[in-house]
Amino acid sequence: MTDAPRIVVTITATANRPDAETIIPRIKLYGDAIRRHGGEPIMLDATSPAAARAAAFATMEGLLLSGGVDVDPARYGQPNRGSADVQRDRDELEAEAWSAAADRDVPVLGICRGFQVMNVLMGGSLLQDVDGHRVGVGTGPPAHHPLRVAPGTRLARILFPRNVGGGVVQVNSFHHQAVRAGDLAPGLVASAWAASPAGDLVEGIESPGAARLLLGVQCHPERTDSTPAAFERMWSVFVDACRGPASGRARRAATALSTTTGRPG
Predict the structure, then answer these.
(1) Which of 41, 88, 245, 256 could form a disulfide with 34 if both were Cys (CB 3.0 to 4.6 A apart)?
(2) How far is Cα 67 from Cα 208, in angstroms, rounded to an integer?
(3) What 3-state DSSP class applies to 110?
(4) 190-235: per-residue pLDDT in tens?
(5) How far apart are alpha carbons 246 and 8 in whole angstroms?
(6) Cα separation of 127 and 137, whole Å?
(7) Predicted pLDDT of residue 138
(8) What single DSSP character describes residue 230?
(9) Can you tell me whether residue 73 is helix, strand or coil?
(10) Which CATH number, 3.40.630.30, 3.40.50.300, 3.40.50.1010, 3.40.50.880, labels domain 6-261?
(11) 222 tagged catalytic
């Protein structure tokens, strides 16, 4: 078996937050999912020093953009129409991480906020508040709804390996912002849809064809207590993809970094 791929995970900064005790266990779930499938999570938040960011980006073999608060609507050229608890320093961290991932040609997985960040950074926009969708946001129990997975997509092959014609699964819901068909970024394929008061919402995105793996879902598959078991294959596919061609470059960079700093890569 190959060494564990280094996967940068962008997370919510918890220092000095009164709700840190509730946020930290939820953040841990992302690292747990990566470790279950043989990856090495490298957690970064907006307070991570520049040197730590640079070292992580120089050696990463994958990027996970995790859940959290709303993206600053200025990022997609809109005034605030319902966005709450915007954290511009996290937006900046994830823009840096996204750019580094593109430079290194490594896979990217986006979860909830991360799904939305991917769409925004590729030139799309967001619906800032879906009527009735604040249920389940925060610490309460999740709402659930059907997710229609488009046939022939990567997500269909992951969730329904014996039936790539797609299907329907029940997923959890912890979001109040969304991507509609008209908000979808150029270069992304809609892989899953869900009904809402605002009409059909895109709740799965991916890169087309044989392009570098970019995969995003609006639900929270790291929360296994409220997620169909089929989503465990998504974590496996992502971590396995991070063992791909970029891995050799990452390990050479890690060796070079340890040589120049005297620290292990």
Answers:
(1) 41
(2) 24
(3) strand
(4) 999 999 888 999 999 999 988 899 999 999 999 999 999 999 999 9
(5) 14
(6) 16
(7) 54
(8) G
(9) helix
(10) 3.40.50.880
(11) yes
Tell me what pLDDT residue 139 has.
Answer: 55
Q: Which of 37, 133, 176, 220 is catalytic?
A: 220
143: which strand partners?
A: 173
Is 112 labeled as catalytic in the residue annotation? Answer: yes
Catalytic residue, from 61, 203, 206, 222: name it.
222
Residue corresponding to tokens 């029940």: 170
Q: Which amino acid would we find at residue 137?
A: V
In the three-class reduction of DSSP (H, G, I as helix; E, B as strand; rest coil), residue 214 is classed as strand
User: Among the options 112, 133, 203, 219, which is catalytic?
Assistant: 112
Every domain of the chain and the residues it spans: 6-261
207: left (phi over 0), alpha (psi -120 to 50) or beta: beta
Encode pLDDT of 5-51 as tens digits: 999 999 999 988 888 898 899 999 999 999 999 999 999 999 999 99
pLDDT in tens, 76-132: 999 999 898 899 999 999 999 999 999 999 999 999 999 999 999 999 999 998 876
Task: Give the pair of three-digit tokens for residue 250.
Answer: 């990452």
| Residues 57 and 97: beta-carbon distance below 8 Å | yes
Please give the Cα distance from 175 to 133 (Å, whole number).
6
Residue with tokens 């659930």: 144
